[in-house]
Specification:
Elements lengths: L3 H22 L4 H27 L7 H15 L7
Helix pairs in contact: 2-3
Amino acid sequence: MSSPVKSSFPRVGRLNALFTEHPASINESYFQHFRHAMRYAGILSSIAAAAALHALIPCLCETTARRKIAALNEELQNRSAPKND
């Protein structure tokens, strides 16, 4: 009878792939990808806040969301495209 530890190794490989396949497809480690994704989350949060402020008080942040989205889009377009997408 095989040990439970040995039979769990394939699961560990599949679990590891969930965290590493996509970052590897754009030539990044998991932590590099995490850092970039969290940075984008922060930028998108600030864009959402500016848009909400603009919705509440229309004379504020009139072009902020549009400018930041355009800049973020340009940055994302210049990053490596995934190989398997």
